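hey all, quick one before standup. I had two proteins in the batch that finished overnight and I want to keep them in one place so we stop losing track of which output belongs to which input. First protein below, input sequence then structure tokens straight from the run.
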Amino acid sequence: MAATLASAADFTRESALAGLRATYPAATLPADDLPSGLLAEENLVYAEASGQSLALDLYRPAAGGPHPAVLIVHGGGWDSGERTMERPLAKRLAAQGFVAAPVSYRLGEAGRFPAALHDLKAAVRWLRAHAAEHGIDPARIAILGGSAGGQLAALLGTSNGVAALEGEVGELGASSAVQAVVDIDGLADFTAPALVAQQVAKPSAPTRFLGGSFAERGEVWRAASPLTYVGLASAPILFLNSTAPTPLLPGREQMAGQLRALGLAAELVVVPDTPHPFWLFQPWFEQVVTAVAGFLQRQLPAAGPTLHLAGDSTMADKPKLDFPERGWGQLFRPLVRPPWRVVNHAVNGRSTKSFRDLGHWQRLLNQLQPGDVVVIQFGHNDAKKEDPLRYSDPVTDYPANLRRLVHEVRERGAMPVLATSVVRRAWDASGQLEDTHGAYLTAVRAIATEEQVPLMELEALTRRLLVELGPEASKTLFVIYAPGEHPALPEGKTDNTHFNETGARAVAGLAVAEMKRLHLPLATALVEPAAGPSVPSDTARH
């Protein structure tokens, strides 16, 4: 029989509080009673590893459901701490409508990276596999952690779908992906020079957790850094920061910036005048509960309608952060508020023909629910007459393809919306902006009228934007860079079709305006982008 996971006594709420008393005499432990209307299920074993039984506790509303869940990971330098120290926070979050689960994981030598992460992924899989019996919505699971637990939470959330980090602990059938992360004072990058230098001078918890120095095990230090895995599959994150000078917490601002560049939510909140373990104590505990509950409620809304985007590279998500190209759909996602959500199905190089032939359209239809909205924007690649896999005749095939897409959306009780292709930056010798879409614009407008489909006039709006800027300033919206100007383009690049982040954000703002003008069902859930679409942020670049 496996031994129960031992509690490590080095880091406890009581010992931390004693250390704070001289500087923060008003600090106290929060109440640990179970609010009325909640159920408690404690000491539930979710896996066994290294001869230890790994357990979690569940605190949940007695009524209603299914509810979103949040796995709560304690801190302690990857060597100590115990899940009971997070029970007060779990109970308060349960009172806000969550199934809250403080979790134990392997510590010390047994928990060296990646073992602790494998345990937590197993815990998420357990929550999902046992969702029905515990009132959990398996589509809405978050992870929260403080200090070392924050690093592990962030790592788990950025590495959604990374098979190399999955491990073989516990039940393997369900997904370990989470839909939101809260990282309280946990680092995001072990490889930051300041942290590496600190650990060279005085090796401590990070060096122990990673099994050696950066010089000895640099690849492990990179592999354990949440920043390494930021991508489109990563979960939205809330960073809660103390004002304490130690420990060093590198990578958080950089990670937030990278997530935002991908169109994912990343919030960073500094709680004033706070020591490192502030989340465990009053008077800061209430602020933590409010911030965490608010973020999770925004990121884990109950199932609602979906906006589906179907189109080509000008709309598509671009996962390579080091390359400047962005699609407008990628920058549109943060402009939509619950209960609506956005799924961007757009793919580089697709036409109305190839989007169907290659299976993208069927995958969209498989997800479509009554009440959803589908924005359809093709034309750039339908015009490629030299490519029979993509070409659609603008008089016959292209309108027929659009008509079929519209009918199939309506057959499923959803709303189709057509959009004209965004303009290319094609100035003629006289300084006039050319029409490169021609008959394809005529066709989509005709189908919109014939089928009585809302039409987003993105071609006209982007044309107006470029004309207002002129031939030179309009370069700032596109992937146009001189040699050496962008690190990913040492030889430079002139691409008059695809947007950089500034351009994609501008078009996303125009899309918001069009959806509001058309009074689409999601219009009230849309917010304006931070920067107006007609004022690019880097017009001085050229």
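OK second protein, same deal, sequence then tokens:
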Amino acid sequence: MASKIFPVLKLATKLTVVGGAFYVVYDSGLLGSSEQGTEVLGRAKTAIPPAINEWMKYFGMEAQVPELPTIEFSPRQAWNSGVRTSISALSDGPTKVCNYTSQGFQYLKDLSK
């Protein structure tokens, strides 16, 4: 009987953890717009280091938390730049293929003369 309940309990635990993680991500605004993402990043920068120091003191550990790296670019402007670049390359693809094909044919014609 226990051997049948254990896999169900294991699956329920995994689904609970995944659902909780998704809820936290959605509730904090990480799945929203770039403005919301920038705001969440700012909140995380101010909240995480003090929380780590508090937990280190609680467990009696001594450690230095490294400084957060500075971001030299605006995450707001680079939010979907990869998507924009990919879509731009896909939309220019047929034109580029046509140009390269005509250049290749011209090169072959010049070689055959």
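Flagging for whoever picks this up: The radius of gyration is 27 Å. The chain has three domains: 1-31, 37-74, 80-113.
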